[in-house]
Amino acid sequence: MEQKLRQEAKALLEQNKVDWIIGFEPGSLKFTATPLITRDKDDTGRLVINPFIFNNLADFLTGIKGRVGIVAKGCDSRSIVSLIQDNKVVREDVVILAVPCPGLIDLVKVEKLVGKDRDELDDITREGDKIIVTVEGKKKEFATTQVLFDHCLACELPTPQEYDILLGEVRSPAPNVEVSGENIKKLKGSVPEQRWEFWENEFSRCIRCYACRNACPACFCQRCFVEETEPQWVMPVPRWQDNLIFQIVRNIHVAGRCTDCGECERVCPVNIPLRSLTREMYGIVDELFSFKSGMDKEALPLMAHYEQEEAEDLFR
Amino acid sequence: MTVADTRFFAQGNVYLPHIAVIEKIIEETPGVRTYHFNFKDEKLRKEFTFESGQFAQYSVLGIGEAPFCISSSPTRRDHLEFAVQKVGKVTNALHRLGVGAEIGFRGPYGNSFPLEALKGKNLVFVGGGIGLAPLRSLIWNVIDNRDIYNKVDIVYGARSPADLCFKYDLEAWDKDKTVNMVTAVDREAEGWKGKVGMVPKILEETAPPAKETVAIVCGPPIMIRFTFPVLEKLGFKPEQMLTTLEKRMKCGIGKCGRCNIGNIYVCRDGPVFSYAQIKDFVSSEY
Amino acid sequence: MANKKVSRQDIAGLLEQWSQQFSVFVPSKESGVAAMTEWDGQDTSFLDWYRNTVVPSKASFLPPMEEMFHFQKGEEGYNIEPPPKTERGQLLFGIRPCDARAMAILDMTFEQALEDPYYLAKRNNAVLVGLGCTNPYESCFCTSMGTSPTESADVDLMLIDICGEFLIEEVTDKGKELIAKTNGLKEAAKDDEAKAKQSKKTAYDRVTRKLDTEGIKDRLLASFDDEGFWEKTAAKCISCGICTLLCPTCFCFDINDEMVKKEGTRFRSWDSCGFPLYSKMPMENPRQEKWRRVRQKVCHKYEFYPMTFDVIACTGCGRCIRLCPVNWDITRVIESVPTKTGVKK
Question: Domain segments of chain A: what residues?
Answer without folding.
Answer: 2-104+148-315, 105-147
